[in-house]
């Protein structure tokens, strides 16, 4: 009881909560008196969403105080808070931001509702970077000589935890540890777990079919990753967020590829196989060398069976070896797909730079497309782009017959989603197909 009381006290110390009037549908007035953080997280979970805690720490506030003096420092802090809130409202979808509070002298924390339209942790990374960049630009106009040095980290609140309040506190402490890269128990625990998962290759792969829209025949399988059962790392969001922030992302993605080879050999699967990779991993200087080792080990599996999906939400800019490695992949025989097309600003830029064999249209375009003529027009535009690049099109996230019918009348090539099948092990999937 004493531990829970301490946790509750810490959570309730987060007092400076920004709740615009239009947000009150998330937090009715009676909940503000109680605990808007807990109630907001509960509501997000009921809506089938995840909640990520994003921490922005400022590690040079003492130096800035000494540089500016008391009066200018107070003005600086006021402007910093205003800039931060303004940027968050502009850069992040207001529907997704549950709560914003600050730690006075430490920084800011966001509670971000993550639905299926966000899709992956890499968009959260991009959001963190963009918020920091925009805040610095705004501050430089009023305080050109006083730039805050941000450290950022994030963690997902565990749904299975018996106490929402304790789960929030634990995720917040983990996000802080990620931001500060502290050598403390929270960071060490996460580092230990991801090292253990990587060293023992403790991941599972599920397969979701990619269906020919007209014939309903299975044409391919996309491999989806899960961490160890009954742990927080079973969720791919948590697994990949920790891997990315602890510099184990490349190792994890290469294990996914290795496990995919194993599954193909074990099941004698002859269908095409889609595997996700971030631009960061594809641009790694050892990627082609490590890939060739796998190909040497599994000589009976042709590279032409694989399609490498590039997660579009990660920007390809500034990754030096990415295009060279993609060219090498094509020479070896791999096909290239651009994932999440239509969900982010970089879609057309990525497509024009890579000229993919396959374009995967994001769920955000497909959702309720039968009720929204603007979305159908977006689909038609992306189909025209695909025609220009000579790419096949896969529509993702089909959940009902009405959405599938729109794809059919627009002659979309392939589709995947719960309407067709939920992910299962490749062995079970092949047996039932």
UniProtKB/TrEMBL annotation:
One of its GO terms (molecular function) is cyclic-guanylate-specific phosphodiesterase activity. It comes from Robertmurraya siralis. PANTHER family: CYCLIC DI-GMP PHOSPHODIESTERASE PDEF, SIGNALING PROTEIN. InterPro entries: Cyclic-di-GMP_PDE-like, EAL_dom, EAL_sf. Residues 187-433 form the EAL domain. The lineage of its organism: Bacteria, Bacillati, Bacillota, Bacilli, Bacillales. It comes from the Bacteria. Pfam families: EAL. Coiled coil: none annotated. This is EAL domain-containing protein.
């Amino acid at each position: 009881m004493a531990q829970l009381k301490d946790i509750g006290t810490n959570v309730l110390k987060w007092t400076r909560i920004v709740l615009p009037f239009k947000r009150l549908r998330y937090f009715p007035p009676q909940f503000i008196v109680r605990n808007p953080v807990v109630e907001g997280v509960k509501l997000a979970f009921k809506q089938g969403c995840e909640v990520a805690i994003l921490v922005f720490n400022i590690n040079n506030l003492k130096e800035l105080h000494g540089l500016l003096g008391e009066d200018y420092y107070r003005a600086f802090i006021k402007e910093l808070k205003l800039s931060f809130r303004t940027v968050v409202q502009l850069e992040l979808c207001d529907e997704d931001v549950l709560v914003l509070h600050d730690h006075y002298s430490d920084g800011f924390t966001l509670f971000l509702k993550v639905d299926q339209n966000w899709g992956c942790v890499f968009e959260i990374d991009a959001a963190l970077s963009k918020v920091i960049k925009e805040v610095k630009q705004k501050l430089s106009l009023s305080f050109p000589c006083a730039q805050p040095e941000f450290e950022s980290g994030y963690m997902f609140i565990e749904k299975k935890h018996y106490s929402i309040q304790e789960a929030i506190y634990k995720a917040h402490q983990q996000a802080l540890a990620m931001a500060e890269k502290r050598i403390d128990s929270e960071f060490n625990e996460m580092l230990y777990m991801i090292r253990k998962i990587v060293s023992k290759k403790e991941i599972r792969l599920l397969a979701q079919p990619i269906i020919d829209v007209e014939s309903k025949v299975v044409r391919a399988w996309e491999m989806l990753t899960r961490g160890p059962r009954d742990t927080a790392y079973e969720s791919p969001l948590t697994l990949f967020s920790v891997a990315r922030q602890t510099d184990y992302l490349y190792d994890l993605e290469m294990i996914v590829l290795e496990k995919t080879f194993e599954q193909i050999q074990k099941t004698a699967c002859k269908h095409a196989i889609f595997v996700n990779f971030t631009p960061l991993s594809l641009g790694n200087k050892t990627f082609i060398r490590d890939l060739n080792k796998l190909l040497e080990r599994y000589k009976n599996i042709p590279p032409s069976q694989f399609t490498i999906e590039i997660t579009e939400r990660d920007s390809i800019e500034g990754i030096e070896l990415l295009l060279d490695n993609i060219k090498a992949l094509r020479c070896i025989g791999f096909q290239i797909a651009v994932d999440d097309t239509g969900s982010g600003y970089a879609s057309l830029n990525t497509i024009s730079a890579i000229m993919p064999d396959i374009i995967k249209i994001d769920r955000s375009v497909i959702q309720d497309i039968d009720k929204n003529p603007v979305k159908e027009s977006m689909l038609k535009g992306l189909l025209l782009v695909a025609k220009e690049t000579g790419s096949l099109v896969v529509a993702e996230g089909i959940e009902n017959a009405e959405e599938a019918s729109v794809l059919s009348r627009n002659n979309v090539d392939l589709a995947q989603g719960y309407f067709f099948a939920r992910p299962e092990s490749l062995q079970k999937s092949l047996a039932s197909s």
